[in-house]
From TrEMBL:
Main localization, broad class: membrane
Entry keyword set: ATP-binding, Cell membrane, Membrane, Nucleotide-binding, Transport
One Pfam family in the UniProt entry: ABC_tran
Listed GO MF terms: ABC-type amino acid transporter activity; ATP binding; ATP hydrolysis activity
GO-annotated cellular components: plasma membrane
The name this protein goes by in its record: Amino acid ABC transporter ATP-binding protein
Membrane topology value: Peripheral membrane protein
Keyword Membrane attributed: yes
InterPro entries (alphabetical): AAA+_ATPase, ABC_ATPase_HisP-typ, ABC_transporter-like_ATP-bd, ABC_transporter-like_CS, MetN_ABC_transporter-like, P-loop_NTPase
Subcellular localization(s) per the UniProt record: Cell membrane
SUPFAM superfamilies membership: P-loop containing nucleoside triphosphate hydrolases
Residue span, ABC transporter domain: 6-249
């Protein structure tokens, strides 16, 4: 019996001869906020894409709670069938750097469409849930707008509402603010902070170091396809042990 919401064991992924994930293991427990930091090209997005089934692992095992998504067979990742994958996809949400909203759908339809089409929720119920989540994101009254009528920060908050609507066990963020200017970044970080204070389980790839230190319980520093160092957020940011971590953090001092 464990509290693990998601765990990856010995995850490996290559693109051609480029070994992007070398041997990554991580476990996220219920209520954990995990931040992943590291230089560009270090494999952070690939890690998130493998964990959210947008890419397949070459080797390793991946589980969502009691659901084995991929199991390791002699260093090779063997994935479960369609039903297993569909079930796993209901357990996580993903928020990208570039919002990834449907441009021709209203805010309301962006949020309700997956609820109605994937979860088969009645329309009225889906709309009530969207209204509630938009209020929580500070976006009441924006239901009928289309994404291009909103600021980047508002669009990203719609994307977060859409992900939350599915009631996931864990929410992944891949650099949710790196397309935003500082003011809009603050708006988005605020809603993520609020989610953290409600103990939403989250994995956040970010370049916002002070945010990571404040919000995350644990930080992983990733470089060259490996976890170089990990630890409690304060400790990793204020007292890094490895030279690579120190060098990376010195860029943000
Ligand atoms: P990060 O998010 O830390 O910047 P990425 O996971 O995006 O790192 O990239 C890690 C490495 O994997 C880079 O060398 C990148 O070029 C390569 N890579 C990522 N996605 C693909 C892909 N779909 N095809 C080929 N190479 C890729
Ligand atoms: Mg990336």
């Amino acid at each position: 019996m464990t509290d693990a919401v998601v765990s990856l064991e010995s995850g490996k992924k290559s693109f051609g001869s480029n070994q992007v994930l070398k041997d990554i293991s991580l476990t996220v427990n219920k209520g954990d906020v995990l931040a992943i930091i590291g230089p560009s090209g270090g494999g952070k997005s690939t890690l998130l894409r493998c964990m959210t089934l947008l890419e397949t692992l070459d080797g390793g095992s991946l589980a969502y709670g009691d659901l084995a998504v991929a199991t390791d067979a002699g260093g090779r990742a063997v994935y479960g069938g369609k039903q297993v994958l569909a079930k796993a996809k209901e357990r996580f949400g993903l928020v990208f750097q570039n919002f990834n909203l449907f441009p021709h759908y209203t805010v309301m339809k962006n949020i309700t469409d997956p609820l109605i089409c994937v979860q088969k929720m009645p329309k009225e119920q889906a709309e009530a849930r969207a209204v509630e989540l938009l209020a929580k994101m500070g976006l009441s009254g924006k239901e009928a707008m289309v994404p291009c009528e909103l600021s980047g920060g508002q669009q990203q908050r719609v994307a977060i509402a859409r992900a939350l609507a599915m009631n996931p066990d864990v929410l992944f963020f891949d650099e949710p603010t790196s397309a935003l200017d500082p003011e809009l970044t603050r708006e988005v970080l605020k809603v993520i902070r609020d989610l953290a204070s409600e103990h939403m389980t989250m994995v956040i790839v970010t370049h916002e170091m002070s945010f990571a230190r404040d919000v995350a319980d644990r930080i992983i520093f990733m470089d060259g396809g490996v976890i170089v160092e990990q630890g409690p957020a304060d400790q990793l940011i204020n007292n890094p042990q490895h030279n690579r971590t120190k060098a990376f953090l010195s860029n943000y001092a």
